[in-house]
Amino acid sequence: RQAAYAALKDMPARTADGVDISLMLNAGLDLDMEMMHQVGADGVGLFRTEFQFLVSETLPRVNDQIDLYKRVLDKAGGKPVVFRTVDLGGDKVLPALNLQREENPALGWRSIRFALDHKGLFRRQLRALVRAAGTRPLTVMFPMVTLPSEFEEARELLFREVDWSEKRTGLRPSKVEVGVMLETPALAYSLPELSGSAEFLSVGTNDLMQFFFAADRMTPSVSDRYNMVCPSALRFLREVSKSCRENNIRMSACGEATGTPLSALCFVALGFTTLSMSAASIGPVKQMIRSVNLEKFQKDFFAALDAPQPDFRNQVLALAADHGV
Ligand code: PEP
Ligand code: MG
């Protein structure tokens, strides 16, 4: 199997009826960048910048951040990299900041909420991203956004750094693209407000599904209890997909579910053409994509979604098998 996946490395992730899907890598270390080339990923769809914060006793200095982001962009060799700004708090506890223990950390002072309340830390990171890009394109996305106002505030801080940096250094990224992660159900109904300011949205299934099903991703007895391949979650994502199209927001997905061929197939059926996943998943997902006639599969998939059997997951599995996937 590994050999079969390796043989696919330089082949496009194109469905049997000719739809191209971008398969990107989830990364967090500059070491991961070798992997991107090894598995033939189309770029990095999620770079988890908080890793650098989590491995250190003290906060990383701006220059250390610039060095890391530069190395990542250099190693990407022109392929796109989506930097996700610090996603701290919750299950990602920062040794350098003495944070209070919370009753429900997943629902607490974390991620973009934490970043917007630690503006010094956040602005230094944004500055580092801008400086590292120099005149190259820069793509940034914000995690755990719940309200459009949080996105707007973060986006404004980013562009302020872009302007300041240009004044100081004379350099400006050739293009700045800003995206938002969809991790809370509330944001799904705010996409009209983000139209025109968010270029893309990336579904973070790990957090989104934990909030959608009200099942803690860190508690083993409930974390595996619910699966994205069920009518409620897929109907929800179908609405997200529709709203993205209506509001001219490019859509993609990251998070563990994209790496499972069956869930990836559902994403592709829902119209997602960019999926970001761990290195080991690229081969299996590419093989699945190359075997499916998407238009034909979609007809049966949407019919099943509107008339699901009690064991919907098996229904979709059987459907996939019928379609030779
Ligand atoms: C997610 O929540 O799906 C995600 C990609 O972010 P993380 O796993 O880093 O919380
Ligand atoms: Mg998340």
TrEMBL record:
Classification lineage: Bacteria, Pseudomonadati, Pseudomonadota, Alphaproteobacteria, Hyphomonadales
Subcellular location(s) per record: Cytoplasm
Name recorded for this polypeptide: phosphoenolpyruvate--protein phosphotransferase
Similarity comment: family membership: Belongs to the PEP-utilizing enzyme family.
Superkingdom of origin organism: Bacteria
